[in-house]
Amino acid sequence: MAEADHQLKLVFLPFFSTSHIIPLVDIARIFAIFGVDVTIIATPANAAIFQKSIDRDSARGQPIRTHTLKFPFSEVDLPEGIETFNADTPRDMTYKIHRGLSLLKDQFEQLFQDYQADCIVTDMFFPWSVETAAKMNIPRLIYVGGSRFAHALGHAIEKYEPHAKVESDTDTFVIPGLPDEIRMTLLQVPDSLRTTNEFTYMMKAIKDSERKSFGSLFDSFSVLDGAYLEHYKKVMGTKSWGVGPVSAWANQGEDKAKRGRAKVEEEEGWLKWLNTKTEESVIYVSFGSMNRFPLSHLIEIAHGLESSGHNFLWVVPKKQKGDEGFEFLEEFEKRVKETNRGYVFKGWAPQLLILDHPAIGGVVTHCGWNTVMESVNAGLPMVTWPLFAEQFENEKLLVDVLKIGVAVGCKEWRNWDDLPEEAAVTREEIRKAVALLMGDGEEAKERRRKAKELSQEAKKAIEVGGSSYNSVKEIIEEIRSYKRGKVMDKEA
Ligand code: UDP
């Protein structure tokens, strides 16, 4: 057997935030299903987010493992265990995590060497890794968080600056050069595009590294945003593949219930509660891993959900020190328990399992891309409530292009750690959007029909011969031929 035909070795490096770890680890697990030897690098607290899944894959005989390395807590003056970006990360400590990450760079590079990687697959937030791959003469694949659609919009805004020509913050402008006519307002544009800040430079470095990479990976599939895949490839000048929905692909059967957890107890309250509800009668409400709303927002959400007349399951983060909203939530929880109208889930919810429950009929989401993909896969229409990152762009895809979303009416992009004290959306807006989504009107029925159709397409994409399945096969073949080219060069 020629050297290039030996089992391919891929090393994955996810970024240290929960919602970047989840999809990239799922992608790693998909490659292992295809027989590729996979190593994932993480620090212990980050590995804990997914290790149970890796243990199960490995017990099934898949060639996959995690390599953990210690986070440099003392060097950056952080308490042990604070090494992940999420809603529970103390805000003043986030920059120290960034510093710790940069201190680990040499160790990451050494591990790529030690594991004799044929290719590294690294998160977009590690732009330096494209140079490392070049030095090692191996391909680097970049995992880009978010949708191709959103990134295509971002590129077009950056290039044509249509937002610079509007007279007011709330005037709409058309984003030129896209497959569809998409309109936005200045207030909805991420601040790194509106102004020049630290993140602008970071995004520039990411994009430069993407252009030099072997190709990009997205959690998407061709029927969802295929027109934007072609557009994206042209704009970036690189190869790009959609390999999703990754959560559905990597987490089948028991993995769905157990993603990131040891087990889901049959007797868990939320499950018992959902089991009492009729089909498609409950709306699932979650704002992802980075959200902690001020009290004023919680009050509006609570009243909006209660007055919508529909059942709801609302996920809120665990209590934190000085958390003024928590008392209110405890009271609210008592009240809705009595009426049996809602369920307040505190902490980390088994989202994949909940979305698949027959009682769930819709989702209220901040348009985080993982949740969008998971809801699409489950065939659920969405109330869209974008907050930060590229979530306003994702809202356009759901509401204007795919027509499976109802916009709640959030008007202004604000960073996850800079939400306004005043609630940005009123209870009446929430009530109306939920009622529209969950109601019996013709538009609601059509939205549900489209969401179910997309779910079927999502399932086809990951079956043998489906678009995402073929993408993974093609990527493996391309890495193999890259390796073959190297071997031939050596032999010549
Ligand atoms: N998630 C979960 N349980 C929770 C909250 C979030 O399993 O209680 C998962 C969710 O399924 C998704 C990810 O965390 O995979 C959140 O990612 P998303 O892109 O939706 O939002 P972000 O966290 O980036 O804002």
TrEMBL record:
<dbReference type="Pfam" id="PF00201">
    <property type="entry name" value="UDPGT"/>
</dbReference>
<dbReference type="InterPro" id="IPR002213">
    <property type="entry name" value="UDP_glucos_trans"/>
</dbReference>
<keyword id="KW-0808">Transferase</keyword>
<keyword id="KW-0328">Glycosyltransferase</keyword>
<comment type="similarity">
    <text>Belongs to the UDP-glycosyltransferase family.</text>
</comment>
<protein>
    <recommendedName>
        <fullName>Glycosyltransferase</fullName>
        <ecNumber>2.4.1.-</ecNumber>
    </recommendedName>
</protein>
<dbReference type="InterPro" id="IPR035595">
    <property type="entry name" value="UDP_glycos_trans_CS"/>
</dbReference>
<dbReference type="GO" id="GO:0035251">
    <property type="term" value="F:UDP-glucosyltransferase activity"/>
</dbReference>
